[in-house]
Every structure is written in C-alpha cells, then in structure tokens.
Amino acid sequence: MAKRLPEDVKQVCLWLAKGYERRLAKEQDQKHPGSRRAGKGRNRERERLEAVEQALVAVGADIAADEVRRQLREAIMLNVKSGRKYPYELLRLEGVSRSDFYRRKDKFLEDIAARMGLL
Question: Which of 45, 93, 100, 110 is deepest in the core (most CB within 10 A)?
C-alpha cells in the first residue's frame, strides 16, 4: 500500500493547486510594464506555479492516448478545486477506473509536495 501524505502537507498542496489559475493570472498581470514586485516574493510564486505545472504534466505520462491524458489532467484539477462538485462519478472519464483516478490524484499532490520540498 502506498504511503499517504500527512494531512497538513496534503492540504497545502490542495491549496497550491486550487490557487494555480489565480496565481497564473496575477503573474501575467505583473509582466506588463509598470508593474513592480519584489524579486524574492515573485520567485517564490514562480516556484509554486512551476511545481503545479510540472506535477500536472507528469499526470498520466504512462497513458499513450493524448486525449485521455488531457481529460485526466482536467478532471484532477476540477476535483482538486471542488471534490464535492466534481467527484469521479460526474467526471465521465474513459479508460480510468475510480481507484486509478484517486491514486493518480494522490500522486499529483505528492508530486507537488516533493517539488516544493514539503516531504
């Protein structure tokens, strides 16, 4: 049986993934001329964005079909944002069982934790 993430680490990773789109939009806004931000804080935000991006790219890397891999990544992000609104049963994933989906979601969160140095 796989080792589970400590609950506090899991929650941090969930919040990093939930805030990904907001952080990305904020970073895009700050790239425009006239916006200033301290370098150290900006580097930390970039590190958070990259951890989520790289973990997301790694999701389903073993799946040959691009479309299935894309759907799996989208489904994991929807479930991370709201597991109550988007449980596995409503996501309609082809070729991915319920247990496989949640195993891959846990691996996604574990990957974020490792990239952020939380393990």
Answer: 110
Give pLDDT tens digits along the chain (119 positions).
457 899 999 999 999 999 999 999 988 887 765 555 556 667 889 999 999 999 999 999 999 999 999 999 999 999 999 988 999 999 999 889 999 999 999 999 999 999 999 98
Question: pTM (2 decimals)?
Answer: 0.86
In a domain? residue 2: no
End-to-end CA distance of the chain: 18
The answer to the question of residue 46 being in a domain is yes
Angle CA 30–58–27, to nearest 5: 5
**DSSP characters over 34-51:** T----HHHHHHHHHHHHH
Report how many domains make up the chain. 1
